[in-house]
Amino acid sequence: MPILSLHNVSKSFGALTVAERVSFDLRAGEALGVIGPNGAGKSSLFNLIAGNLRPDSGRIVLDGRDVTAAPPMQRCLAGIGRSFQIPQPFGHLSVYENLLVAARFGGALSADAAPRHCMDILRRTGLAAQAERIAGSLSLLQRKRLELARAMATEPRVILLDEIAGGLTEGECGELVATIRQIHAEGTAIIWIEHVLHALTSVVERLMVLNFGRVLVIGAPDEVMASPEVGEIYLGVAA
Amino acid sequence: MTTRTSSAFGRPASIAGAVALAALMFAMPLIAPRAVVQDLFSILTLLVLAMNWNLLAGFAGLVSVGQQAFVGIGAYAMFAAIILWGLDPLVGALIGGLVAVLFAIPMAFFAFRLQGAYFAIGTWVVADMVRLAAGQWKALGGGTGTSLPKGTTRDMIGVPLVKSVLGVSSAAAADTVVYWLALGLAILTLAASFYFLRSRMGLGLQALRDNANAARSVGVDPRRIKAIVFLLTAFGTGLCGALIFIQITRVTPDAAFSVIDWTAFVIFIVVIGGIGTLPGPIVGVAIFYLLQRLLADYGTVYLILLGLIGIGIMLFARGGIWGAISDRTGIELLPLRHRPPSHQPVVVEQEAARPAG
């Protein structure tokens, strides 16, 4: 049974369609990459899965349970953790406190267990030295790491990563990929939106291409990237 | 700006200082003239109102301009308990707090549908409606209000005992009892605010204030937490309102539901002291009292000056006076920060200390 299923999910804002009958399954522990041109509806897809947007039609099923009408906090408690494309830290709290909120609420960890859990994640994401810094004072790259770390702190079964590798150096990107591989190896299912294709394809088992809110193609990364349609629409190469 | 994130007064020294201050405040009726005790009562009750408003606006982001509703409801419920049901004023004060909570429940259903400025205006409108309704309560004097029956405070719980132990008049003993109650309420409100904000709920509340969208996505339920804060502050404000009018001994709709006395001054106190910080209202009420004493003879000019000071602080020191002190010195009184395990104090680059709401 898939851990997450979308059945004909659609969402429009007036004439603008951000999701049109989107359907796919995500297997437990699977890593799925999402690519598509700007405005293809990638971040809107995350907002629909995480509950920040309510679909106009269609169903979202998490682990056999229909969560289409559930608000974001309930989806988080049900096992969906997310990062935001534009980082949204709790600006007046420290980096450590940002994770503590996620661990105590989304992860439902006890006051005894949460601190160790948070420090462990901060070490894994390279933020341990910044634990006491006010999150609002972090650089953009550190904020992106914090997005990943905070999502991890909720102990998700499905983690949604939205362009967290953008702007990283090769070395930083390598560290990030190693961290995501580790999350994947621990059995967490991943949906990762990313423009840094080599990083993405080195982790994911399947790749999904979105265009104008529709699923253009979904399959093994090599096959998807070799598809003439993808070459034409996403990479700008004539078929 | 470089500041020390972990600086705080030594814990034993802080506790000793706080206990000494509380002991001095407790002893004031024994060593100070009655007028000073009455002044301190006013300061303490304003402090309680300010701490409640700070929790609501500074930490929960609920900028209410209608807290006078709970002051008035607390006062009127207390008067009803005494005049209509023959209860002791202190029991009446507790009832005042509880009735304020009961009123806050339907008010929350309405007000929580409003955001930002609409929430502020909505709460003000509700408070004014309650003021008009109180004016229709004929049993409590309608629009002209009513007074406590003669001898009510003289026979209040604790007053005969204080009178005999201290050897003072009934009126002075009543002042002493309500002063001690206001002191106890101020300490309790401060302690409750501190422990609430340090709790899981408090952490979620601060996350919500910083970024509601992200907070929801990590499992924080905004309605539940904000509703808890709204009800708790309604209780504290209602109880305090009842206490204020036990001392005044007379209630009218205009006095009990005064937006100037119970909300505008309270907002001024919190803003100049430091919104979103626990010591802020304490600093703010001290400054407000000093200004009131120094400028009281200047009438309208005094209010204009208060307004100018408030505007100046909002423009140039948004964290208030306590925020500015804390930023410059790194001192954190009543620190709310959760430290990582095996914390070692570190000096780091930091652009902002605690928030300005």
TrEMBL record, chain A:
Alphabetically ordered keywords of this record: ATP-binding, Nucleotide-binding, Transport
Domain of life: Bacteria
GO cellular component: plasma membrane
Keyword Transport: yes
Ranges in coiled-coil conformation: none
InterPro entries linked to this entry: AAA+_ATPase, ABC_AA/LPS_Transport, ABC_transporter-like_ATP-bd, P-loop_NTPase
Gene3D superfamilies (UniProt xref): P-loop containing nucleotide triphosphate hydrolases
One example GO MF annotation: L-phenylalanine transmembrane transporter activity
Cross-referenced Pfam families: ABC_tran (PF00005)
Keyword rRNA-binding: no
Biological process terms in GO annotation: D-alanine transmembrane transport; L-alanine transport; L-isoleucine import across plasma membrane; L-valine import across plasma membrane
Domain ABC transporter span(s) in chain numbering: 4-237
Record-linked PANTHER family: AMINO ACID ABC TRANSPORTER ATP-BINDING PROTEIN, CONSERVED COMPONENT OF ABC TRANSPORTER FOR NATURAL AMINO ACIDS-RELATED
The protein's name: Branched-chain amino acid transport system ATP-binding protein
From TrEMBL, chain B:
Protein's name according to its UniProt entry: Branched-chain amino acid transport system permease protein
GO molecular function terms noted in the UniProt entry: branched-chain amino acid transmembrane transporter activity
Transmembrane segments: 12-31, 43-62, 69-87, 93-112, 117-134, 177-197, 227-250, 262-291, 303-325
Organism: Kaistia hirudinis
GO cellular component entries: plasma membrane
Topology in the lipid bilayer: Multi-pass membrane protein
Keyword Membrane part of the UniProt annotation: yes
Compartmental location: Cell membrane
